[in-house]
Design goal:
One of its GO terms (biological process) is regulation of gene expression. The chain has 114 residues and is α+β, with helices and mostly antiparallel strands. Helices cover 23% and strands 23% of the residues. The strands form 3 sheets. The protein has a 3-stranded antiparallel β-sheet.
Length: 114
């Protein structure tokens, strides 16, 4: 690890209107560098889960979210510098309906961790 930025970021806005305002604002510059914000392309059946405790295992995530539907894939990025998970994951479900249902319940508690 070099400790240098890889040149990209993901931003989660509180409301969809913010995304439209960023797009309409024209050119953006951060620390003297022009940046090119783009809206993420929706991946059907895939959901972002943030705020995951690093102590939770793959099995914990699969067991908890598996109760909602068939899981096709779980991506849990790992921070090699800190030697722990990054605290978020992406879960792909077989059914898009599972994602729609989960989005109606934004707060989840797994092993007493919200």
């Amino acid at each position: 690890m070099t400790g240098r930025s890889r040149g990209f970021a993901f931003i989660v806005f509180q409301d969809a209107a913010s995304i439209d305002r960023v797009s309409a604002a024209g050119e953006h510059t951060i620390n003297g560098k022009k940046v090119d914000p783009k809206k993420a392309k929706a991946r059907h059946g895939k959901i972002f889960v943030g705020g995951i405790s690093p102590e939770l295992s793959d099995d914990d995530i699969n067991e908890y979210f598996g109760q909602y539907g068939t899981i096709m894939e779980v991506e849990m990025p790992f921070d090699k510098q800190k030697n722990q998970r990054k605290g978020f994951c992406f879960i792909t479900f077989e059914s898009e309906q599972v994602v729609a249902d989960l989005l109606k319940r934004p707060k989840q508690v797994i092993k007493d961790k919200e």
